[in-house]
């Protein structure tokens, strides 16, 4: 995983990734960011395409390594 990839993500994609990495569902992410579930799904598609990571566990590891979330954030 390359850390330069995190620069490709928009601010909103980083917010969505943060919530996904913390185990939120698409509906929870949508409610917390005041966007539609469809928009969350679009962001998820863009994130997985940009990063080449398809699993939630992979995205979580990426988010930790790139300081999008910290180990303390994970319950």
TrEMBL record:
Entry keywords, A to Z: DNA-binding, Transcription, Transcription regulation
SUPFAM superfamilies noted in UniProt: C-terminal effector domain of the bipartite response regulators
CDD domains to which the protein is assigned, alphabetical: LuxR_C_like (cd06170)
Pfam families cross-referenced by the UniProt entry: GerE
InterPro entries: Sig_transdc_resp-reg_C-effctor (IPR016032), Tscrpt_reg_LuxR_C (IPR000792), WH-like_DNA-bd_sf (IPR036388)
SMART domains on file: HTH_LUXR
GO BP: regulation of DNA-templated transcription
DNA-binding in keyword set: yes
Domain HTH luxR-type residue range list: 2-67
Keyword Transcription regulation: yes
Gene3D superfamilies according to UniProt: Winged helix-like DNA-binding domain superfamily/Winged helix DNA-binding domain
GO molecular function terms noted in the UniProt entry: DNA binding
Protein name per its UniProtKB record: Helix-turn-helix transcriptional regulator
Organism: Plebeiibacterium sediminum
